[in-house]
TrEMBL record:
SUPFAM superfamilies: NAD(P)-binding Rossmann-fold domains. Pfam families: adh_short_C2. It is an enzyme of class 1 (oxidoreductase). This is SDR family NAD(P)-dependent oxidoreductase. One of its GO terms (molecular function) is oxidoreductase activity. Belongs to the short-chain dehydrogenases/reductases (SDR) family. It comes from Nocardiopsis mangrovi. The keyword Cell cycle does not apply.
């Protein structure tokens, strides 16, 4: 198995992306530590992993609370022996559908603050243990990595937030590389499965996402989990400071 004897922390582990990542890590042999704010959703994912023969633990915490994140990472390292993989996919609570010029400052700032703060806090907590281990993988998630604005839909501060996280990811990779720590992004260009059935703009956004791809389909949650497991494994040991393009050809590198 690709991740045998590894410990992975997934912040936002009760969400749909978090579930995809956690189940893929567990399938490849990692012990998954699910962290989030809602006990019921975390326990449901953990039970699913255990039913499939995997290992999972849960912790209720807010990824924006640095003391709680630090304490949890310390507990994982002490109890399980290491922190090998860390990824935050918490909801950034963005407001979409409103043009930037009609948006309040608070609504614009919210996703930027949540995305950068949670990424920084969780990456720092993991890196403190990874430096000692001289190994580890930090993953970020979201966007298409292409640097182009979304022209056909008002996406608020979300795209700005993803851009900020990408810069943070590159800087972390530059500073942590000497300790054997890799930092990678997963760029999907959008997962149409994630759009609620009752979302008014669902069809338009699906068409926009799929229409940009060469494969005429979007990445699935399963695709994300499979690529993340590869990225976190030793098969990708020479990859850092870059993104894994799973946009189905929406972005060319």
């Amino acid at each position: 198995m690709l991740l045998d004897a590894k410990n992975a922390i997934v912040y936002g582990g009760g969400g749909r992306v978090g579930t995809a990542l956690a189940t893929a890590f567990a399938r490849e042999g990692a012990k998954v530590h699910l962290a989030g704010r809602t006990r019921a959703t975390l326990d449901a994912v953990a039970e699913r992993i255990r039913a499939d023969g995997g290992r999972a633990e849960t912790a209720v915490l807010d990824a924006l609370d640095e003391a709680a994140v630090d304490e949890h990472a310390d507990a994982v390292a002490a109890g399980s022996g290491s922190v090998d993989i860390s990824v935050s996919v918490i909801d950034v609570a963005d407001v979409q559908g409103t043009p930037l010029v009609g948006m309040s400052l608070a609504d614009f700032e919210r996703p930027v603050r949540i995305a950068t703060r949670s990424t920084f806090i969780t990456a720092r907590a993991a890196a403190r243990h990874m430096v000692r281990q001289r190994s580890g993988v930090i993953l970020t998630f979201g966007g298409d990595g292409g640097g182009e604005p979304i022209r056909d839909y008002a996406i608020g501060g979300f795209q700005v937030a993803l851009g900020a996280v990408d810069v943070l990811r590159r800087q972390l990779a530059a500073e942590l590389g000497e300790y054997g720590i890799r930092v990678l992004a997963l760029h999907t260009g959008g997962i149409t499965e994630s759009l609620p059935e009752d979302f008014g703009a669902r069809e338009a956004i699906t068409d926009m996402i799929v229409g940009k791809t060469m494969l005429k389909r979007a990445a699935t949650f399963a695709d994300v989990g499979n690529v993340a497991a590869f990225a976190a494994s030793d098969l990708a040991r020479s990859m850092t400071a870059t993104s894994l393009n799973i946009t189905a050809g929406a972005v060319t590198d």
